[in-house]
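Ligand-bound model needed. adenosine-5'-diphosphate.
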Amino acid sequence: MRVLSGIQPSGSLHIGNFFGMMKSMIEWQNKSELYCFIVNLHALTSLNDGPTLAKNTLDAAMDFLALGLDPEKSVFWVQGDVPEHTELTWILHNFTSMGLLERSHSYKDKISRGLVPNHGLFAYPVLMAADILLYQANLVPVGQDQKQHLEITRDIAGTFNHIFGPTFTIPEPGIDENLATIPGLDGQKMSKSYNNAINIFISKEELKKRVMAIVTDAKAVEDIKDPDSCHLFAIARLFLTPDKLAELKERYLKPGLKYGEVKKELVETIWEYFAPYREKREDLARRPDEVRSIMRYGAEKARKKAQETLEKVREKVGLNY
Ligand code: ADP
Ligand code: TRP
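Prediction:
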């Protein structure tokens, strides 16, 4: 089975990205053929700052590698290094109805939040369809928010296959219904756009600042607390073993718990959790050229598969003469 997913390098990666996507992606590499990539062309739709995009792309690559993504076991690359993505996108535009894109929740949502849309943002789902169809992926693990994009991909593939005969594998979305959205410091979805995230590789000082800023209720020390509605508990649970979690829950249900103490413990727990990866991350940061060459190697592997599909498509639509 071929599993494929991408992540935008639009800001530093945070623990919501880690538990929501990166961790399970990295686990897939032992169970399937994994294609994982950094979607810098998608990030261009909302980030027009060259040096920042370039830095975020290299940082995201280092983060994934440090967290255990193995470039030998998997195919790991940067989207913009494989020109077949954009060529297939143009071809697919011609099999995508305007109405399909006009109904996109993600597009409508971004406009309603005041973003002035460009054509790239409107066409975003077509590039995503090309990403997936180029590699004939069977399963695409994504968050709930990407479900409609997967439906658009399936629609475009279906239209193409109907006209030209079986060409693209129709992908299945891999949405983990049990995976709760990880809250940020303020209890909203943790997101790089809301300034409420705890980034994975930050200094201990910064980590302390962030954890101390987690919003809790105004209950007094002697009050009994509710773990289920507490953002601090929701974040802590990601890092704790079942035993430690049960212990913490008990402390919530008895008088005497101080949120400040739980926060101090959480700083240590998070720091320890990422410790083995932090060393690797620091080491990679000292060797950026090596990381660039790992990504180029991944792009070469990806291109082989991409060219195979694109060649079939070019033949069918009449671009080969
Ligand atoms: P952000 O909201 O920070 O911009 P993205 O939309 O780029 O993050 O998400 C990248 C991946 O991380 C997606 O697969 C998404 O489902 C996952 N993800 C992001 N934030 C969270 C969260 N708070 N909880 C769970 N998963 C998340
Ligand atoms: N749109 C996805 C997101 O914002 C990222 C993405 C781009 C993607 N291309 C993809 C995810 C292909 C899965 C497969 O999270």
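Strands lie at 2-7, 33-38, 75-78, 139-141, 172-174.
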